[in-house]
Amino acid sequence: MKFIDRFCYKYKRFGIKNLMRYVIGLNALVFVLSLMPNGDVIYQGLLFDRAAIFSGEIWRVVTCLFIPPSTNILFLFFALYFYYIIGRAIEAEWGSMKLTVYYVLSCLLTLTVCFVFDVSLTATYVNLSLFMAFATFYPDFQMLLFFVIPIKIKYLAMVDAGFFLWNIVTTPFPYNLAPVVAMGAYLAFFYEYYVRFFKTRGRVRKSASSYRQNVRETRQAQTGYVHKCAVCGKTDRDDPSEEFRYCSVCTDYACYCSKHIFNHEHHK
User: Fold this and answer.
1) CA distance linking residue 228 with residue 256, whole number of Å
2) Is the omega angle on the peptide bond into residue 240 within 30 degrees of 0, that is, cis?
3) Are 149 and 261 part of one and the same domain?
4) Res 146: pLDDT
5) What distance lies between CA 51 and its chain's CA centroid?
6) Does residue 86 register a pLDDT over 80?
7) Together in a domain, 192 and 229
C-alpha cells in the first residue's frame, strides 16, 4: 500500500535493523528454557493465557510470539536459519522499517485473535508468511530440497500456500484464524504487486499475440503460406487440414508437420 510506503519512509529511523536476528534469538531462548529442569512448567508459563495475563503475567503477551515451531533441535536449527535468510533478503528489498511494520502488524493481529477468542496462538504462521514474501521477490531462487533435489522457491511457495489453505479449512475455529491473519497481512502488503503483475502479463500476451499475427500475415503475403515443415517441406497451403507444431528443443524453434514433429533430428 502506498500509505504504508509513505509511513515507512517518514519514520524509517524507527525500523528494527536485523529484526529476524532478534526473532531467531528469542525462539532459540525459549527452546533452551524448555530443556531446563521443570522445562514443561516454564514452557507452559510462556504460552498465551488470557486469564493469566489479566492476573498480572503480562510477559505472556510477548513470549507467546516466540514459541519455536518445533521441539526437534535439527528441524528447529534449519527452520531458524531459513528464517534468517529470508528475513535478511526481505529487509534488503523493503528496508528495516517496512519489515518491522509487517511483522509487528501481523503479530498484533494474531494477539487480537488470542484476546478476543481466548485461544493460545503463536507467530508460526507469521514467519511462514515471510517465506511467501521471499518467494514473491525471488520466485526463481533455487534451493536444494533435502540437500539433493534442486527446486525453485516459487514451487515451494505454492506448497506453502496450499498448506495455509488446508489449515484454514481443516483447523477448528477460531484456531484457523492464525493462518487467515498471516495471509491477510501478506495480501495487504502485496496485492498491488499482483495487480501490476497481471496487468503487465495481459499486455505482454496481447502484444505477443498481435506480433505473431502480424508475422503470419506478412509471411503469408510473401510466400502464400504460414507454416512449413522443416523435413518434408509441406505447407498449410498444400494441405489446409494438416496440423503443424513447433519444436521447443530445436534451437531455431523449427516447424514440423504431424508426421515429423516426433520424428526428426533436433537442430542444435
Assistant:
1) 7
2) no
3) no
4) 63
5) 36
6) yes
7) no
Query: DSSP letter string over 182-220?
Result: HHHHHHHHHHHHHHHHHHHHHHHHHHHHHHHHHHHHHHH
Residue 7 CA: distances (Å) to CA of 11, 30, 105, 131: 6, 33, 14, 24
pLDDT at 74 over 60: yes
- How many other C-beta atoms are found inside a 10 Å radius of the C-beta of residue 187? 13
In a domain, 217, yes or no: no
Give yes or no for a contact between 99 and 61, defined as CB atoms under 8 angstroms apart.
Answer: no
Task: Look up residue 28 and give its amino acid.
Answer: A
CB atoms within 10 A of CB 188: 15
DSSP, collapsed to helix, strand or coil, labels residue 235 as strand
User: Mean per-residue pLDDT for 225-253?
Assistant: 80
Total number of domains in the chain: 2
SS3 110: helix
Residue with cell 536449527: 77
* Predicted pLDDT at 108: 92
DSSP, residue by residue, 15-53 = S-TTHHHHHHHHHHHHHHHHHSTTHHHHHHTTS--HHHH
Range of the domain at 140: 2-197
| The three grid cell numbers given for residue 240, joined into one nine-digit string | 489446409
Is the pLDDT at 61 greater than 90? The verdict is yes
Residue 89's Cβ-count burial label (10 Å; 0-12, 13-18, 19+) is middle
